[in-house]
Amino acid sequence: CVFFFFQAEDGIRDAQESRGLGDVYKRQAQACAKNPNVARFIHFSCAGVSKDSPSLDLQTKWHGEQEVREAFPGATIFRPSVVTGRHDYFIRHWITNREFFQNFTLVFDNCEAKRQPIYVGDIGLCVLNALKLPETAGRTYELGGPQVYTIRECMEIMYNIIGREPKLAYFQHDIARSIAKYLINWQFFNLDNIIKNTQDMIVSPDARKIDELCVTPVSFPIIAQKCLWDNRARYPGDKDEFER
């Protein structure tokens, strides 16, 4: 039996609440450790986690890792960078933002934070290979695609794919943070995401990487083309592709 645990706490606002989630991860791992039928424990965290991160989400993921490692020392921990694929969060967020603001993308900083997009199918291969390789038990792997981009470069790639000129609408960072504090958390606009967009979330130089799992990742432009074909087809000149 294999147990998978995913940490997803976008939108956390309260530091005490975020630390309290660590108990949940620990109880899950302890239950698995006591169950003789559980041979492997796969825990998903995130690239860029740190106990000192300004993002409560990234703090929580770091504390969650410590609790899991203590309760289930043989757990394999994956720290993926931005995950891409059809119906993902990263590309879908950009599509929703652009469509809501009439082809403009609303941004709250200079978009120079770094990302290393990785295809969800490649992550699946990493999991399968980790289960086949017993030496991966008890290790932490940071998963990223073949290239590192700034957030601005990622948006430019997507604009180029749909054949539109990049249009970024800047909204002052401090004002956006102040507004987000008083709004109901929304996956496309919340305080913690505004903070995370200023942080690099890439594979660390000294980390165990995807090549140790015998996986060659697909590049972000290739995946973005597959995910954006319907958006590209909405504009004149792409009628044949739309009909396909």
Give an overview of the whole structure.
It is globular, with a radius of gyration of 19 Å. The longest helix has 20 residues, at 15-34. It has a 4-stranded parallel beta sheet, with helices on both faces. A two-stranded parallel sheet has the order 4-7. The chain has a two-stranded parallel ribbon with strand order 5-10. Helix 1 packs parallel to helix 2 (56-71) and helix 5 packs across helix 8. The chain has helices at residues 15-34, 56-71, 90-100, 120-132, 151-162, 173-180, 191-196, 220-227, 229-232, 239-243; strands spanning 2-6, 40-44, 76-80, 83-84, 105-107, 114-115, 118-119, 140-143, 149-150, 168-170. The chain is α/β, with parallel strands linked by helices and 244 residues long. Helix content is 42%, strand content 14%. The termini are far apart.
